[in-house]
Amino acid sequence: MKRAALLLVVLIIITGCNKVEKIHSGAVVIDTHTDTPMLMVNKGLNLSQRHEPPGSCVDFPRLKEGGVDAIFFALFTGQKERVSENYDAVYNLAHQMIDSTRVNVSRNSDMVGLATSSSAIEEISKQGKTAICLGMENGFPIAKDLRRVDVFYNLGVRYITLCHSSNNDICDSSTDPVRPEHNGVSEFGKAVIARMNQLGMIIDVSHISDDAFYDVIELSKAPVIASHSSVRSICDHPRNMSDEMIKQLAENGGVIQICILGNYISDADTTSMNYIKKEELRLKYNNWQYKNEEERKAAWAEYDAINREYPPVLPTVADAVDHIDYVVELVGVDYVGIGSDFDGGGGLANCRDVSEFPEITRELVKRGYTSEEIEKIWGGNFLRVYKAVEAIAVKTN
Ligand SMILES: [Zn+2]
Predict the structure, then answer these.
(1) Which among 103, 182, 212, 274 counts the fewest CB atoms within 10 Å?
(2) Over its length of 397 residues, how does the chain's per-residue pLDDT go in tens digits?
């Protein structure tokens, strides 16, 4: 009898594993935000080789292991003073990141393909490869020149996160250390949004201020995404979205892609050495307002050293799925997805890189989500928005 019971338990476990695998491989798995291009440019990361977290969370072999059908590589530029030399520098940096992505993709066409439309994502995933898509995190490289929206569209960029952690020429940031500058979206920002709608570029509201978010909802003809944002009611960070914002986003047909970066998933343990040391560092570097490039590099080196000496205790997949549950409860299962922020600080204790994405599916299955619901969360919802953005572009052109 004992043996029979044991056999039954083993069978149940195997069936459960197979179920997770089947659902995960059947879904179009899309991650809408990673900062991988930065590592390619700064560290010469070769994506055809397998690396290890935390140094690197995304490469082509691990995308395959994690059953990832499409991933957005964000061209991230940190906000600096808005002077012509900085505009030029970030414009060039964005081009460098596009070039590195293109080189890495073209050298590995057996594993990946560059996708610049929703149908290309579906096509490439059907071939058993991962679609690499381009987004831009922070509209800083657009400077004050509307023509640059077209320049980046023509190079394959399909979303722009309007700003990053400080205000820019397009809109206010949710975390600007000084104050609101435009009280939402600027006049130039309005023109950027209109042009993005015309071209079929997705507007990304992650990082922007609440007022800027409400302006975008008014201004955009197409639904919008938050490529990597979590729920403020669970984790009170200005970068996360309030219930009211999530409701408006959903009403507009958009999607919030839950960001699996620790600070946006659970409130920090303010008694941990990791937290205390980082707070000291923040004060030392004037709330991350650097005087120059050397100072920025020094701050990051010290930041990395703190993480090595006092490794942060990361939240778990279950903590992240709590955010998904919350959105589902609030507005339904059609308006939520996942944007990891891997290679930009994203990662959970039991999902440290793209190869471990099936752990999220396992948790969703455990909580009773159906395969149809999981397919929506992993990519269906995002693809719906992407297609709506493309359809509006066709209509306006
Ligand atoms: Zn970000």
Answers:
(1) 103
(2) 577 777 777 766 666 679 999 999 999 999 999 999 999 999 999 999 999 998 899 999 999 999 999 999 999 999 999 999 999 999 999 999 999 999 999 999 999 999 999 999 999 999 999 999 999 999 999 999 999 999 999 999 999 999 999 999 999 999 998 789 999 999 999 999 999 999 999 999 999 999 999 999 999 999 999 999 999 999 999 999 999 999 999 999 999 999 999 899 998 888 999 999 999 999 999 887 788 888 888 998 999 899 889 988 899 999 999 999 999 999 999 999 999 999 999 999 999 999 999 999 999 999 999 999 999 999 999 999 999 999 999 877 6
Q: Could you give the number of structural domains in the chain?
A: 1
365 belongs to a structural domain: yes
How many angstroms does the Cα of residue 340 sit away from the middle of ligand 1?
10
Cβ proximity of 255 and 337 under 8 Å? yes
Strand, coil or helix: what is 172?
A: coil
Query: Do β-strands 112-114 and 130-137 pair in parallel, antiparallel, or remain unpaired?
Result: parallel
- State in Å: Cα 30 to ligand 1 middle: 17
Q: How far apart are CA 69 and CA 157, in angstroms?
A: 18
Kindly state whether residue 199 falls inside one of the protein's structural domains: yes
Give the distance (Å) from ligand 1 centre to CA of residue 229. 8
| Cα–ligand 1 centroid distance for 307 (angstroms) | 19
> Does any domain span residue 156?
yes
Domain presence at residue 16: no
Specify whether the CB–CB gap between 68 and 28 falls below 8 A: no
Around 310, how many Cα atoms within 13 Å sit in the side-chain half-sphere?
Answer: 12
Question: What distance in angstroms lies between residue 343's CA and the mean position of ligand 1's atoms?
Answer: 10
The alpha carbon of 3 and the centre of ligand 1 are apart by a number of angstroms equal to 52
The whole model's pTM is what?
0.92
Please give the angle made by the CA atoms of 323, 324 and 329, to the nearest 5 degrees. 95
Cα of 1 to ligand 1 centre, how many Å?
55
Q: What is the CATH number of the domain that holds 156?
A: 3.20.20.140
Q: How many CA atoms lie within 13 A of 307 on its CB side?
A: 11
Reduce the DSSP state of residue 255 to 3 states and report it.
Answer: strand
> What's the gap in Å between 164 CA and the centre of ligand 1?
7
Q: 10 alpha carbon to ligand 1 midpoint, in Å?
A: 42
